[in-house]
Design goal:
single chain, about 325 residues, alpha/beta, D-Maltodextrin-Binding Protein, domain 2, 13 helices, about 15% strand
Length: about 325
């Protein structure tokens, strides 16, 4: 009889216990409003896929709108453990990621896909990996090529003279003065008000930034010129990654890396089309390109910026050569 009672009690206890432990909560900090395809495709859908793949082991929860961190402090928020995962642009921490800044150089990659995949391959092959000792990289993001969104037409270098133009990162800060304009360091969230108040005359941003920051409400001329790219990251805190349960770590690993880079590229493609098409259709908006001769003049002026970057960057010549090789490989050797 006693054995029967003990067995019955044990069975009752087992049925009363939860089948699974509560999932480990993983915080993901997103610096902007959750109102675009990058958020929906690149972070919301990605988080849902990771949660599903982890089968209840972890649960990623997104904190958008700068609640935990913004572009200026996200790296510190990640390394300090204030967030487990964070996304931001490299600009504010470009001094830490000198080799990685190769992705911002003008007139190198033709588009953001080439740039993003080339950068990730450099990381995978150890060319720039020494810069990421404080974090666990999940993906890089490269925003579509810079477009100068201006309050007045710009067709040549004479039109650039004396303009106040926003910059992010060292490369663009060095390039803009060579084109005759004055660089003004701004964070993405400051662009709209700075244009509205006349603190800057133009902002170089990819097309996805137009609807995100409402740039078409304060500019009416848009010059498509290959001045380079804004680059960003999705990092995870190293300790947070190490402490993940095996199923959670496997899910993160499966859905990060090149697969995640491709997902972010697709989201950028969507946003680029939305931003450009909406601007083109709006009254009073002009989209233009430089004529070939003027384009050649801008490219010539940009060469010393690349040369200076090579001299100032550890292993700069090797990093640039490796980047160019990877860009060609992504392009298909063309």
């Amino acid at each position: 009889m006693k054995k029967f009672i003990v067995a019955g009690t044990l069975a009752a206890a087992l049925f009363a216990a939860p089948a699974f432990a509560d999932p480990v909560q993983v915080k993901l900090a997103y610096p902007s409003a959750p109102n675009n395809a990058l958020f929906a495709q690149g972070f919301q859908a990605w988080s849902e896929d990771v949660n599903k793949a982890a089968d209840g082991a972890i649960e990623i929860k997104i904190f958008p709108g700068g609640v935990i961190g913004d572009n200026s402090n996200m790296y510190d928020r990640i390394t300090s453990g204030a967030t487990d995962i964070g996304f931001a642009v490299f600009g504010p921490v470009s001094s830490i990621f000198q080799r990685t800044n190769v992705g911002t150089l003008p007139f190198e990659a033709k588009n953001h896909r080439e740039d993003a995949l080339a950068l990730w391959h450099l990381y995978q092959k150890g060319v720039i990996s020494m810069e990421f000792g404080q974090v666990h990289p999940l993906a890089f993001i490269v925003f579509p090529g810079l477009v100068i969104h201006a309050k007045k037409p710009i067709h040549n270098l004479a039109d650039m003279k004396g303009l106040k133009i926003s910059v992010e990162g060292r490369v663009l800060s060095a390039l803009i003065p060579r084109l005759g304009a004055a660089p003004i360091s701004l964070q993405p969230g400051e662009l709209f008000q700075s244009l509205q108040r006349g603190l800057v005359d133009a902002v170089p941003q990819g097309w996805p930034s137009v609807p995100t920051f409402h740039l078409n409400e304060v500019t009416n001329f848009h010059l498509e010129v290959p001045l380079g790219f804004n680059t960003g990251y999705v990092f995870m805190n190293k300790d947070a990654y190490a402490k993940l349960p095996p199923a959670g770590k496997a899910a993160i690993d499966k859905l990060s890396g090149e697969a995640y880079v491709e997902r972010l590229i697709a989201a950028d493609d969507t946003m680029e089309a939305i931003g450009r098409d909406a601007t083109k259709a709006a009254p009073g908006q002009t989209i233009a390109q430089l004529d070939p001769a003027e384009d050649a003049r801008w490219k010539e002026l940009a060469l010393p910026v690349t040369e200076d970057w090579v001299k100032a960057t550890p292993d700069g010549d090797k990093v640039l050569a490796a980047f160019r090789a990877e860009v060609l490989a992504v392009r298909g050797g063309k």
